[in-house]
Amino acid sequence: MKITRDLYQGSLALLTDFYQLTMAYAYWKSGKAEQEAVFNLFFRKNPFQSGFTIAAGLDYVIDYCRNFKFDENDLAYLQEMTLESGEPTFDPEFIQYLRNLEFSCDIDAVEEGAVVFPNTPLIRVKGPLLQCQLLETPMLNIINFQTLVATKAARITLEAKGDTVLEFGLRRAQGIDGALAASRASYIGGCSSTSNVMAGKLFGIPVSGTHAHSWIMAFESEIEAFEAYADAFPDNCIFLVDTYDTIRGVQNAIKVGRALEARGKKLLGVRIDSGDLAYYSNMARELLDEAGFKDTKVVASNDLDEHILSSLKMQEASIDIWGIGTKLVTAYDQPALGAVYKMAALKDSSGIWVPKVKVSQQSIKINIPGFHNVKRFYKNGKAVSDMIFLESDQGLQEEVTIIDPYDPTKRKKIKPESMESKTLLVPIFKKGKKVYTRPQLDEIRNRTLANLDRFDKAHKRLINPHIYPVGLEESLYHLRTDLVLKAKNYN
After folding, report:
1. What is the pTM of this model?
2. Are 193 and 208 in contact (CB under 8 A)?
3. Do 343 and 373 have their domain in common?
């Protein structure tokens, strides 16, 4: 079956904040529209008090950029806009400029499924200033949400410790687009399937599901409902057993399971959706084992997240499969990642790149200037540190020092020649042309699992994770400090 890749094939150029268009117009008016710039998209804190973050959403960004254009309906809408004075907001010449605009940026990005950390660029955009500016809002809209949900899913699947995790949050998700993006990001983060059939069609995610309480209530008795479902789906029988009484529900499932066995079929599982999940799962396991259904799985749901899952594991609950909905697809305990998009360099009239820094009263809001990239170092197969470095400093010394961008007392020395390393940003577009081969979603999911496996468990623990060291290469740290001091007139 052919999987649909371009979810949004029409123009989405107006999916932006109005101030992006007013800035674009002002760049054009001032003659700066084609001046080259570099912007970085990054976040400042790991979500959910996690020790890591999982990058997701790049595939949507690729679709957006490939289809970036202002169509005639967009231009007609912009042309009709007026100021309070009644004058047109935009000159007709600017509308014509937008009509002829062709995407021509270079984009480098961290691949989806990569483990990433605060302050490191997830996406780097280089190109005409006006185009770079117009990409800010849609990129943040895409990356913020999918990265957030992929991280939540990864935390949940880590706590499941090898158990199957199903995502079924469609009915509680934030609208149609939110549901589709959440299903995709959940799969990237490690979930095994989704209940969202459209996500299955669009992205090739395995779909799963059996029946709801309403199925049981539509029959005169619970066992009659189970028998009818077994007749319809003899190869997909997971019975929801808590409609009336959980223990009796398991007993009825066992009765129908025996009838299935007589037909050469199997009772795949029972699902518990309410009550004391630790107690009832253990009771269900005991009843199933005594009846000879040792391979029948116990499925649990009911507003679960990684914390409840961890607690149930510690209580030795007999749960084999976890159904996660609301708290995954809505990123329930942290509704936004907070990624930002900041200018890092601007080419002057003589063709020289000038690093740019934003100064703030809050040190965490001071960006990292210059045309930079990220290198990850490994020792004995495990990731040990990430270094943000200027791409002009390709010739690394025998020993380099990385410095925490907000605490110069936190430093680490690295000997690059004695360590495995990987540069994280890879080319996606060159001069507006896609040069990246897009992986299948299964490959991205496998990348997530493989990436997480290369980090020490201390960075992945649920509570108070050990902070993974990320720092600026020493010359970049000093460049940033000098620029900040100069901006504050301290030099």
Report:
1. 0.95
2. yes
3. yes
Residue 193: strand pairing partners: 166
Q: Is residue 84 part of a domain?
A: yes
DSSP of 85-118? TSSBSS-HHHHHHHHT-----EEEEEPTT-EE-T
Residue with tokens 């000879």: 292
pLDDT for the residue 394: 61
Helix (H, G, I), strand (E, B) or coil at 285: helix
Measured between its terminal Cα atoms, the distance across the chain in Å is 64
Q: What is the DSSP letter of 417?
A: G
For tokens 């040190």, name the residue: 363
Q: Judge whether 14 and 76 are in contact, CB under 8 Å.
A: no
In the β-sheet with 340-347, what is the strand arrangement from edge to edge?
353-355, 340-347, 36-42, 123-128, 106-110, 425-430, 433-434
**Distance set, CA 212 to CA 273, 314, 451 (Å):** 10, 29, 36
Query: Could you tell me if residue 1 is inside a domain?
Result: no
∠ at Cα 395 (430, 39), nearest 5°? Answer: 35
The DSSP secondary-structure symbol of 469 reads P
Contact 413, 397 (CB under 8 A): no
Enclosing domain of residue 32: 18-149+335-487
Q: What is the tens place of the pLDDT at every residue in 191-244?
A: 999 999 999 999 999 999 999 999 999 999 999 999 999 999 999 999 999 999
Q: Hey, what are 222's tokens?
A: 């619970």
Q: What's the CA gap between 450 and 190, in Å, rounded?
A: 11
Give me the CATH number covering residue 281. Answer: 3.20.20.70
* Tokens read off for 378: 């490994």
* Number of compact structural domains in the chain: 2
* Strands of the sheet with 470-473, listed across from one edge: 411-414, 400-403, 470-473, 382-390, 372-379, 420-423
**For residues 111 and 258, what is the distance between their CA atoms, to the nearest angstrom?**
49
Give the C-alpha distances (Å, rounded to integers) separating 445 from 309, 449, 476: 21, 7, 33
